[in-house]
Write a sequence for this structure.
């Protein structure tokens, strides 16, 4: 009788974020948090209790929130500006552009509940455009950690990086994929699984689904490489070119529109540096409807089994059979 596999423990990356933030706050009196009436959803309650004078709640005024963050940075403080990613990026994009990126302000923007994490709140709360809006801005690294370990490492890195950063975090639980003690490197992909047939690339909540898809493919004798591409800007050009050279085909998946996001960033490299068959999985250029994030990802063809089928269709293109 076969043993029943124990499901992997799921972690809310916001917990990893606030754990590091509270430790940084204890170590550095210049660390402050700014939020938009989102103490609860940003999980800043512990920070507020420990450092009440260092939490600024501007209310539902995201443009002011970003401006306040820039002012605090100009005053020598280290602000983490936290809010729902859909509003932090969409509603205050001009302030992110002018006050943060153009001014090269030392502000850490933390987009909470990104992608379709708000689920039942529907299209107004889905954040499936934030990669596209932020990755075109100079001076602004765009990062979407794949698990709680990478989240903690990325927050630690961001606190020491002398400039603006956009961290994209979800509230949907994911299993840990990276080893304890992982050190984040901006612009560097993580090789999670090696293979020579096709390369699967994702970040955030999609990385573990890519790993499951690779496991499905392995049962059919297809060895897929899996890359966790947490940094959307700057993209890891070397890893993408190596993936094309070694596997000949690339499949990306993201909790974002298929336009302007991770897949688009990788396609820019593929077209310019190493043309090869490629497919981008994501929200297909529509307003994603109401539904849980898990349901919507499955509906848009990003269940592990569907990802595996998409990979096999790429293999057919690579071999000239389709």
């Amino acid at each position: 009788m076969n043993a029943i596999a124990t499901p992997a423990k799921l972690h809310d990356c916001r917990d990893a974020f606030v754990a590091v933030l509270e430790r940084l706050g204890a170590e550095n009196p210049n660390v402050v948090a700014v939020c938009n009436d989102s103490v609860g959803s940003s999980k800043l309650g512990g920070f507020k209790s420990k450092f009440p004078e260092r939490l600024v709640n501007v209310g539902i005024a995201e443009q002011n929130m970003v401006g306040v963050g820039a002012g605090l940075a100009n005053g020598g403080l280290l602000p983490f500006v936290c809010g729902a990613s859909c509003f932090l990026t969409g509603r205050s994009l001009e302030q992110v552009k002018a006050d943060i990126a153009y001014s090269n302000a030392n502000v850490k923007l933390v987009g909470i509940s990104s992608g379709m994490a708000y689920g039942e709140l529907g299209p107004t709360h889905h954040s499936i455009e934030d990669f596209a809006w932020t990755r075109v801005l100079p001076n602004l690294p765009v990062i979407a950690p794949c698990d709680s370990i990478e989240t903690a490492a990325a927050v630690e890195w961001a606190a020491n990086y002398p400039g603006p950063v956009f961290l994209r975090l979800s509230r949907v639980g994911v299993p840990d994929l990276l080893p304890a003690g992982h050190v984040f490197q901006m612009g560097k992909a993580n090789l999670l699984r090696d293979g020579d047939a096709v390369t699967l690339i994702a970040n955030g909540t999609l990385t573990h689904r890519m790993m499951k898809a690779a496991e499905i493919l392995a049962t059919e004798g297809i060895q897929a490489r899996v890359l966790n591409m947490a940094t959307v800007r700057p993209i890891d050009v070397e890893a993408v070119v190596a993936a094309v050279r070694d596997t000949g085909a690339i499949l990306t998946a993201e909790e974002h529109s298929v336009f302007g996001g991770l897949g688009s960033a990788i396609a820019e490299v593929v077209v310019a540096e190493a043309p090869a068959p490629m497919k981008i999985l994501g929200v297909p250029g529509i307003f994603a409807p109401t539904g849980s994030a898990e349901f919507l990802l499955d509906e848009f063809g990003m269940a592990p089994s569907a990802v595996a089928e998409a990979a096999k269709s790429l293999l057919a293109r690579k071999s000239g059979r389709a």
The domain at 11-175 is CATH 3.40.50.970 (Rossmann fold).
